[in-house]
């Protein structure tokens, strides 16, 4: 009775091992997956690392102080107008040809007497206006510049008349003075009219000289 | 003989039974493993992983691009050393200096017209409180002369500002007129009906609260 039982147990053990080992192996192969997933994963990791490095570098730059520039107030420079030249008649440098006259426009403003002296130093006189066309031209010029200009016209208290620097009396049909007729009054040409201003006031001025044949 | 046969049959039955049980157990283990493997390989979890990676990469890329743009913009607009912090609060077309905003006109007019034009802009013809301010205005005005807020009733009256405060005689006013203007020479005066450009000024409301802390522009 005992011997048959022992034999039966041994047989069972062998049978178990043989039958159960083979089935799982093909399934294990499936677990690995395909190769391209691994490569993709590696590339993804590398990309992430690069992005993180870039991020840290940029943050570092941002935290740094930016370049410093000094304050500068933009001052608009005055452009000099080109000189008009002809083969026969020629004006000196920095002067403008207007018909038969060379005109110089001052770059600064000063009292009338200083303008007169400056013109004299340049071998010229303060502007004398001969006719309505010339007046209109100069008013347009004043408008373009946004400035007013002393000319060679002053009030003479003794005679109670306006006189040009060449001694002639103002013809009121040519131009009319707006403002006070009193002592220390000098003519100031603007874009619309000719004013009487204080001779002591600062203003730009216009010099003229007669054109010479070259 | 029949007893022996019966014994053999029972032993066989026992063998078969035990074997079946063991095999079943093995099969169960296999199924469990199979399930685990399937779960790790399952398309759902794989897709989730890929999505996570994608999202992180996109976020980082966007961050890098944004920072690059911010840096380039910042370099284009450098910070000014010693710039008045209040300048930025002036209206468009106005120039800031200290706690004030200044407007330089393009048009010309007489003194009264100029003052009215400034009042229309909720300001008045310009006042200056210091030599530094005067120097700034002279530098900025360019070649043209500009009316400022100084005036007097006649050549025998004292100078007053457009806001009716008395002038402190900080700078000598030349010329023989009743209205002050800024020229290359400093402050001159002309008759009120003559035409010039003008300067308006108003104070910046934000700057007022910072008056004590605003550094002077040198």
From TrEMBL, chain B:
Cleavable signal peptide? none
Q: Where in the cell is it found?
A: Cell membrane
Q: Where are the transmembrane segments?
A: 51-73
A GO cellular component annotation here is: external side of plasma membrane
An example Pfam family from this entry, by short name, is Lectin_C
- Which PROSITE patterns has this protein been placed in? C_TYPE_LECTIN_2
Residue ranges of the C-type lectin domain? 97-201
Q: How does it sit in the membrane?
A: Single-pass type II membrane protein
Keywords, sorted A to Z? Lectin, Membrane, Signal-anchor, Transmembrane, Transmembrane helix
Q: What is its main location?
A: membrane
Q: Which GO MF terms does the UniProt record name?
A: carbohydrate binding; natural killer cell lectin-like receptor binding
What protein is this chain from?
A: C-type lectin domain family 2, member H
In which organism is this protein found? Answer: Rattus norvegicus (Rat)
Lineage here is: Eukaryota, Metazoa, Chordata, Craniata, Vertebrata
């Amino acid at each position: 009775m005992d011997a048959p039982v022992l034999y039966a147990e041994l047989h069972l053990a062998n049978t178990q091992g043989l039958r159960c080992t083979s089935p799982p192996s093909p399934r294990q192969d499936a677990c690995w997956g395909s190769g391209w997933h691994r490569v993709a994963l590696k590339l993804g990791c590398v990309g992430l690392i690069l992005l993180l490095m870039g991020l840290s570098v940029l943050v570092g730059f941002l935290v740094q102080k930016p370049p410093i520039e000094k304050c500068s107030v933009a001052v608009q420079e005055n452009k000099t107008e080109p000189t008009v030249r002809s083969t026969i008649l020629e004006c000196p440098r920095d002067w403008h040809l207007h018909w038969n006259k060379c005109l110089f426009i001052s770059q600064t403003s000063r009292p009338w007497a200083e303008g007169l002296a400056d013109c004299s130093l340049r071998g010229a006189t303060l502007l004398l206006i001969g006719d309505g066309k010339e007046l209109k031209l100069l008013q347009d010029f004043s408008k373009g510049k946004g400035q007013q200009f002393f000319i060679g016209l002053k009030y003479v208290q003794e005679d109670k008349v306006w006189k040009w620097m060449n001694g002639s009396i103002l013809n009121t049909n040519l131009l009319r003075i707006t403002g006070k007729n009193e002592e220390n009054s000098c003519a100031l040409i603007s874009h619309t009219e000719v004013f009487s201003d204080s001779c002591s006031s600062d203003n730009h001025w216009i010099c003229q000289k007669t054109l010479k044949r070259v | 003989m029949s007893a022996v046969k019966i014994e053999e049959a029972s032993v066989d039955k026992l063998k078969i039974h035990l074997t079946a049980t063991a095999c079943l157990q093995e099969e169960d283990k296999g199924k469990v493993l199979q399930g685990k493997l399937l779960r790790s390989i399952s398309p759902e979890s794989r897709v989730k992983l890929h999505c996570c990676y994608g999202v992180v990469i996109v976020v980082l890329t966007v961050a890098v691009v944004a920072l690059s743009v911010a840096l380039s913009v910042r370099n284009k607009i450098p910070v000014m050393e010693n710039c008045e912090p209040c300048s930025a609060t002036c209206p468009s077309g106005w120039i800031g200096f200290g706690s004030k905003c200044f407007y330089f006109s393009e048009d010309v007019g007489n003194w009264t017209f100029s003052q009215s034009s400034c009042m229309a802009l909720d300001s008045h013809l310009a006042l200056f409180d210091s030599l530094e301010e005067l120097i700034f205005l002279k530098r900025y005005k360019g070649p043209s002369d500009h009316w400022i807020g100084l005036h007097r009733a006649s050549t025998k009256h004292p100078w007053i500002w457009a806001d009716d405060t008395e002038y402190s005689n900080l700078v000598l006013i030349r010329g023989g007129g009743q209205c002050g203007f800024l020229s290359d020479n400093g402050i001159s005066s002309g008759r009120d009906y003559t035409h010039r450009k003008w300067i308006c000024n108003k104070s910046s409301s934000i700057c007022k609260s910072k008056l004590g802390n605003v550094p002077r522009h040198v």
